[in-house]
Input
Amino acid sequence: MKRTADPKALAGASQVAEVLTEALPYIQKFHGATMVIKYGGHAMVDEELKQTFARDIVLLKLVGINPLIVHGGGPQIGQLLEKLNIPTRFVGGMRVTDDDTMNVVEMVLGGLVNQDIVSLINTQGGRAVGVTGKDGKLITASRLEMRDPSQTATTSEIIDIGHVGEVKKVNGAVLDALMSQGFIPVVAPIGVGDDGEAYNINADIVAGKIAEFLGAEKLILLTDTPGILDADGNTLTGLSPTEVDQLIKDGVIQGGMLPKTQCAVEAIQAGVKTAQIIDGTVPHALLLEILTDAGVGTMIGA
Output
């Protein structure tokens, strides 16, 4: 029996074939490469975006790329603290984390959020494994010293903001062991001190440090904006660390974008090939950025 192709279906299939052809050089280029992806913002809340993110991660793994996810969870932590009537206070953008707050942080990041992401990826056919920085001493941390921003540099005092940490060391062997067996690590940004104390660490910083210690091909930070914007609100698609420094000095990069940009630059200076700050509100943002000629954010390279 002769088969007659539906012209509309054929046109759609041809479009898919063109996309796959466009993706081929990128698949070849990045086959076997490690990419550290900071997952957060609207992409972690919107149900449709959560599903597309999980499918994108599974597809990247299937074409030979090694994705590693570091996730945030600030809004979820805030919601549970409010339910438990635990007051929240911020200093210099950092959540003051006392013992009670740290218990909630571990519950939300290491439990609820982490396992939700693992489940999403596994439901789409992936093999995700959730870990925190405490597992296998993955992230050794120390207490972050926060200086009072209201005082001068010569007289500033250190403010105690509790269990807020900074990364001292990443045990890459833990992640290498998982990825070598075909697993997708999903990392909660909780570190552990030499004394066993737990620390809450900014997820962007954790992602950057993991990318550095693994010598990753890419560091990708998902945000709720189109990337780094110039003074006129236009997306800057490609920048060098020197250009980023100038934009910071000029006050163009500021607020919440500042720490993201700084950790991206530090990763580049430590040997990561490229860092991308991309718009996670765009469906399939990861695939568009990695496997097509189209960009959905800002790339920072050496």
Notes: The chain has a mean pLDDT of 89. The longest strand covers residues 34-39. Residues 102 and 110 are 11 Å apart (CA to CA).
